[in-house]
Design a protein that fits this description.
It is a single chain. The protein has two domains: 1-22 and 83-125; 23-81, no CATH class. The chain contains five helices and two strands. The chain has helices at residues 6-16, 29-54, 63-73, 87-101, 106-120, and strands at 18-19, 85-86. Strands 1-2 form a two-stranded antiparallel ribbon. Helix 4 runs antiparallel to helix 5. The chain starts with 5 loop residues before the first helix and ends in a 5-residue tail after the last helix.
Length: 125
């Protein structure tokens, strides 16, 4: 494996590293993501158990098809995490916001923004 230059490391960092752009505390995601994955699975198990409990007494031939039909009527609940944003996009957004709010030196922030844009662009090989 070859050594990477600091400039290449910075470019890779801006493109590969991700940051939580959802607007909530990034530390709370440690609890919220597993909780949000857990809740739909639990609801699906609960629904299946309710349908099966209701079908316990029935032993006629059409009972199996009826249970399967009732299970397939409603689509199972799901949850998917929205992807985090690349670090380069977050830094560009922060610099643009600083410029529009008039925080800091506008000339310096414009130079920084251009520098980040250059680094987040993929090299032409």
């Amino acid at each position: 494996m070859r050594r990477r230059s600091p400039q290449e490391k910075k470019r890779l960092s801006y493109t590969k590293e991700r940051r939580n752009a959802y607007g909530e505390n990034d530390k709370s995601s440690r609890n919220n993501i597993p909780r949000n994955k857990r809740a739909p699975h639990r609801a699906n198990r609960h629904r299946v158990n309710q349908v099966l409990e209701a079908a316990i007494g029935a032993v006629d031939e059409g009972a199996e098809e009826e249970v399967e039909r009732r299970l397939l009527v409603k689509r199972p609940k799901t949850w998917a995490k929205s992807p985090d944003a690349p670090l380069g996009e977050i830094v560009q957004y922060t610099l643009r916001r600083r410029m529009t709010l008039g925080i800091g030196d506008p000339g310096r922030d414009a130079v920084r923004l251009e520098r980040v844009r250059r680094r987040t662009r993929q090299p032409t090989d």
